[in-house]
Amino acid sequence: MTTTAATALTPATAARYCIQKRGPKPPSEFIRAINLKPSSSGWGAAAHGRSSAPLIVSRASSSSSAPKTTSKGKRKIKKDDGDDPPDDKDEAEEEEKLQQQQPSSVSVIKRLDDVNPVGLGRRSRQIFDEVWRKFSGLGQISRTTRTDDEASLLISEGGPMCEFATPGAQNTTVLVVGATSRVGRIVVRKLMLRGYTVKALVRKADQEIVDMLPTSVDIVTGDVGDPSSLKPAVEGCNKIICCATARSSITGDLNRVDNQGVYNLTKAFQDYNNKLAQLRAGKSSKSKLLLAKFKSADSLDGWVVRQGTYFQDVVAAKYDGGMDAKFEFSDSGDAVFSGYVFTRGGYVELSKKLSLTLGSTLDRYEGLVLSVGGNGRSYVIILEAGPSADPDQSKMYFARISTKVGFCRRPIEGPVRTKQDLRSFQLILEYIKALPTGQETDFILISCTGSGIDSSRREQVLRAKKAGEDSLRRSGLGYTIVRPGPLMEEPGGQRALVFDQGNRISQAISCADVADICVKALHDSTARNKSFDVCYEYVAETGKELYELVAHLPDKANNYLTPALSVLEKNT
Amino acid sequence: MALILPTQLVTPCTTRSRTASPSRHGSLSWRRTLAADIISAPSSSSYPSLSPGGGGGCVQVQPLLVKCTAAAANLAPGTPVRPTTILVVGATGTLGRQVVRRALDEGYDVRCLVRPRPAPADFLRDWGAIVVNADLSKPETIPATLVGVHTIIDCATGRPEEPIKTVDWEGKVALIQCAKAMGIQKFIFYSIHNCDKHPEVPLMQIKYCTEKFLQDSGINHTIIRLCGFMQGLIGQYAVPILEDKSVWGTDAPTRIAYMDTQDIARLTFIALRNENVSGKLLTFAGPRAWTNQEVIALCERLAGQDANVTTVPVSVLKFTRQLTRFFEWTNDVADRLAFSEVLSSDTVFSVPMTETYKLLGVDSKDVASLEKYLQDYFTNILKKLKDLKAQSKQSDFYL
């Protein structure tokens, strides 16, 4: 009898586990377990009258009782093997002995008399085991009741009692690009611990790489250099963390991964967002708003060229060469704003009243992207916003842009445009778009500060990385660009970190800390649209402190990222 | 009974020498030495102490006779082991899983030594740890798992149903010797608080002996003594109270300073990186020591319902232990009940932590208190139950 009880109980345990975890189990086991249900006290309690709610609880407790039950069975079996004759006597003796000490257990067993006699033996055994387990548990101090794998979900695996629990993690799918890199590996683990759904983009899904990643990570094969392979990767993703970097510093490689790769990723992600938006017949909240596009002569209508001076200087005006400007559509198909300004304090401006569709405003947007080609002059963009009836209440946003010779694109905070220059100028305008605003970051890119790279290649590496960063900024996605110092393979959370902007950090940082910043930034509104450098705290020699930096020691309780980032500038 | 014991000690050792793989012969020569030691040692001094029914009534392990004779590893130049690789022994346990989780989060590469079993520890792999199969009670399986490991964190302990000795003593001895032979650079061992004061409790004695063995082995180590885990209270008190089942308590005046295993894991890694702690013995205890009855009262208050408490006098436990000791097959049970000796001794399982906090540079406010822990648990579970209740009205969800 003891033997059957032991073997029969094991599948029951397995099935409980199976239901709770929803893991794949052979159906045969499952059915057996269901047949057994009425005999198990935990299930029985749930099935009678008591609502289903306590089931989770009973699972937790019965799970702890199960191993013991099994073990008891085992022990008895062992004994059976050895000395057969005194077997039953021993057991009876033990039971009797305990019943003397535990009058309550006697009454429990008596109550069972009116139950189905077939299950009686098994049931009494279970009750006895339960009583015995509790009894022997009393003699313990440091040993906890073994809860094994079926441990309550509350305490383990991302439940609210887990210190890593992140609200909203369950509903977030994160694509980790470069999941096998030094940082990517840790990022994947951190995300798994926090209960995110993780997709990993790897170049080759061979056994070695699969073994390296957690089992329930969804592995997608693809290459950031190949746009078509990214389509399945971004499907279903809410956020992207890009830890990929070129394997060599050959220009072609750099360009393919660090520059074009980021562009491809942002494009694939935006395409996917737009596709989703189309499905619900709307516009993706992450897409940019087109304010002006200069692609034909007609599109220049409404743009007015004006000129003026900031102050009146009669004497100086006499010797000025004056100023002139025009805005026209050239033969080559470009909209060109060109002219000269020789007057001191003079300016020419190009402006237009924005005609937004009724009801829409620029509230949802927080930046402008201009696609322009300049001749090396700097210009100022001014966006005036307010009720058109009352110009006094309007607000002006200024931003200075400098153009390089050649074609460049730059996002500018605070919108619309005017430009100022002291000499002749030429500005080719292609389009002006508004960048949408949002709560959280959509794309985290790990770039680099350039320190620690062989100086002969530093320039090329940085150029590719910068180009990649730029294409991300322009994409309209909420971005966070992390530029860590040289990466070290050591445990994180040990040293204070410095967050800074302006490429003046000098220290290294551990991969684990970078990974932690990425994971924390996912849901941090202060991280949106920011680029920052980060490294270990630099302990300056006294008297040689150059500047003051705010240092933050990462710890379990504190969220160091928010205060650190809130002082940094946006749209950088 | 007494006669069986030496053979129990000896058998695994001989197995070891038999199974030493020829390829590793040089570095693992300790196996033979160890076996020889043990066989000769008990005959001289350990027999007299093994009087049946006397003393602790169980195996008086004589660990100091077993010297760690493993030859120091060949430290010839080669690829250095990355200091971020750690091996966690007993990773599926209450404490072990928290250690694994913490380690992964701090960026370590974690390898978990788990016993081969039909239902593999999937959750460990899901977190990103690498699972290797080995069994401490089969020492020949150990060395392969230690290749490329920098630090071993040992949170293993035998399952309640198996004899205490196989894992906790023989397994640990094998593990420490392997670690020594293979040049493991750091070993963290979890022990029990006050284990030196209660030699009558087999588990505590074994832990104490293992501490001594580890200290003698010369490995760079840290020993951490623990009191009790808060997580254990959930199954013992909180769940039965929520289920309206009877809660069993004792009238023992023993106080235990329970600690959250997540805090233990956190402090462990701080200690691991702190060079000052190397070779030291630390004790981690919770902020306050609680008696059994106090914990039950607290659970009742937080759950908002009265518990059906069955109080068992400690004397009954002691009596049962005496009784179970008479039969060979109930010896394991007797071992498990051995803590009743401690319970009746009015000990306080706690230790002032100020020094430790200072040493590790930890703020005492960061360590969770039992009230806070249980309160979180009850808030969460009551909320969950409410959600489930609402759901179950719509469908029969457990089919």
How would you describe this protein?
- Chain B: One of its GO terms (cellular component) is photosystem II.
- The complex is a heterodimer of chains A (572) and B (399).
- The model of chain A is unreliable at 1-106, 142-160, 405-422 and 548-557 (pLDDT under 50).
- With 572 residues, chain A is an alpha/beta fold.
- Chain A is elongated, with a radius of gyration of 34 Å.
- Chain A starts with a helix and ends in a 6-residue tail after the last helix.
- The relative contact order of chain A is 0.08.
- In chain A, strand 7 (323-329) and strand 8 (335-341) form a beta hairpin.
- Chain A is built from 15 helices and 21 strands.
- In chain A, helix 1 runs antiparallel to helix 4 and helix 8 (182-193) packs across helix 14 (511-521).
- Chain A has three domains: 2-150, no CATH class; 173-284 and 441-566, Rossmann fold (3-Layer(aba) Sandwich); 289-436, Jelly Rolls, CATH 2.60.120.
- A nine-stranded mixed sheet of chain A has the order 3-2-1-4-15-16-20-18-21, with helices on both faces. In chain A, strands 5, 7, 8, 10, 13 and 14 form a six-stranded antiparallel sheet that branches.
- In chain A, 37% of the residues lie in helices and 22% in strands.
- Chain B is of the alpha/beta class.
- Chain B folds into two domains: 12-225, Rossmann fold, CATH 3.40.50; 227-259 and 288-350 and 370-388, UDP-galactose 4-epimerase, domain 1 (Alpha-Beta Complex).
- In chain B, the strands form four sheets. Chain B has a seven-stranded parallel sheet, with helices on both faces.
- In chain B, strand 1 (85-89), helix 3 (94-105) and strand 2 form a beta-alpha-beta unit.
- In chain B, helix 1 (4-19) packs antiparallel against helix 2.
- Chain B is globular.
- Chains A and B meet through helix 1, helix 4, helix 5, helix 7 and helix 8 of A and helix 3, helix 4, strand 7, helix 7 and strand 8 of B.
